[in-house]
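Why do we care about 3D structure at all? Because function follows from shape, and shape follows, mostly, from sequence. That is the central idea of this module. The next example makes it concrete: a single protein chain, its amino acid sequence, and then its structure expressed as tokens.
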Amino acid sequence: MPRAIGANCRVHTFPETVYGTAPGGNWRRLPFLSIDLGAEQPLLDNDIIGVGANRDPAAPFLDTVTVRGQAVVPVDLVNIGHWLRLLLGAPTTTGTSPNFIHTFASGAAALPSNSIEIAYPDVPSFDVCAGVRADTLELDFSPTGPATATLGLIGQGSVRTGASGAGTPTSHALTLFNKAQGSISRNAAALAQVTGARLTYANGMELVRTIRADRRVEGVDPGVTRATGQITVRFENTTLLTQAQDGTAAEFALAYTINGNRSLTFTLHEVYLALAKTPIEGPAGVEATFDFRAAFNATATRMMTAVLRNDQAGTVYA
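And the structure:
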């Protein structure tokens, strides 16, 4: 009997019409680097005494089911839009073929859910996680390497079967961004001397636990959003240091750009910097690392905007 290997595994997903109910039809196959989404049901110790002939414990019992995990995915031109939809909600799409602009906004009152099937065809085993919502997104910016994103996922339930429920999955052509295409700007001006940056967005998801015969959670509700991170720069001027000292806000944008019509940009409309040291750690260059937090901006009417420019019509992410 063949053993499961990662190279043969697949991830299929599709939006749900009814929360926690896997949809029919043909799902989408999405590229990934790793995923550990799945169901866990811990055993709890039974503290009852007096049931045996000695001090040995009584049998343990199963607690509630928890479905959660992380997916590490490539940041590409098309497929990343499906993850952004799960994280932020459906975008507003403008433009005309072949140049469309998909605008995703933070803070939506309600967020969609997907069913995600993790396929192990070698076994065969197909794990369908339903009621999945995206809680977090992490992006790292550096001068070199592949561009990847890490998503924190939380679901309602999981069912394993011996056959796929994803129909005949469809897929998009893969056009990857890389970190060399990255850029960071402050108040619409390029920020120089940046050696690295990290952005973390969180929906503040809360597991709603109720009394249910199937031991699943009732749902996953969004809470207060957060956008935090770090920017590391060579100490060339006092622009960021002055902003941190003054406690003022600025708009920051982190982007990957292929050309004017093919890009992905995350704009944080009101960013505050924590005061950072400028340590001298030897004869090499001096760097400063600024922690940041974003807030709701009254002019933009949101904290963060993600804009994806590609050749896909708005129906793809509807």
